[in-house]
Amino acid sequence: MEKNIIHPGNKDHYISAVLQNENIIVLHWSVSDYKKQIIAFSMGVQPLQLKKQCRIYDVTGISFTGNNARMYMDVPLPDQAGTWKLSGVKPNRSYIIDIGYKGNSTLIPILRSKVIHTPGAGVISEDFTLDTGSWKRGQKEECGWIEQVSTYTQYETNE
User: Fold this and answer.
1) Are 28 and 85 within 8 A, CB to CB?
2) DSSP state for residue 112 in the 8-state scheme
3) What is the enclosing helix (H) or strand (E) of 39?
C-alpha cells in the first residue's frame, strides 16, 4: 500500500498548508461527506445549502486562542475543491487557516492548519547568503542573517 506523505494519518479528514513562495500558501484538504451531513443537520439546513469557506487568521506575535487573531479574512471555496492557492499573503507574518462550512451566517470550522510563517520581504531570493565574513572582520555592525533569527526563552518558576 502506498504511503501518502501529505496526510499520513486520517485520510478522510486532513489539512496541509505549504508555503510555495513568499506570497503564496498552497492548501490541500479533505472533509468526508459524512462530516458535512452532520454539520448540515446540526445547523438545520440541507447539505447542498452549506458553503465551503477558508478562513485565514493573521496570528503574528500572539498565542492564538481561536478568537484573538490580529485579523481574519474569509475566502469562499468551490464545494468540490480540495486544493487552493492563497495568494497575496504578507511577508514576515504567521497564519493559521481553517476550512469549514457556512450555513446561514456562522462559519463552522472543520479543519485547522498548523501555523505557517512567511519570510521577510525579499528573503527568498537567489542573492540570500549567510556570509558572515565581513561581520567577523568588523566591516559590518550586524550579520546579514540577524533579522531572520527568531528566539524565545522559557522561564521556569522555582516553587
Assistant:
1) no
2) E
3) helix 33-43
Contact 109, 55 (CB under 8 A): yes
Cβ–Cβ < 8 Å for 131, 144: yes
CA-based Rg of the chain, rounded to a whole angstrom?
Answer: 20
**61 burial class (0-12, 13-18, 19+ CB within 10 angstroms)?**
exposed
Element (H, E) at 133: helix 133-136
The fold of 14-117 is: Immunoglobulin-like (2.60.40)
Q: Using one digit for the tens of pLDDT, what is the confidence trace for 140-153?
A: 555 454 444 455 55
Q: For the chain, how long is the longest CA-to-CA vector?
A: 70
Helix (H) / strand (E) element for 136: namely helix 133-136
Q: What is the mean pLDDT of the chain?
A: 78
DSSP 130: -
5: its cell numbers: 506523505
Domain boundaries, the chain: 14-117
| pLDDT value at residue 5 | 41
Q: Which of 18, 41, 39, 43 is nearest to 28 (CA)?
A: 18
Q: Could you read off the pLDDT of 78-110 as tens digits, one per residue? A: 988 899 999 989 999 999 999 999 877 788 899
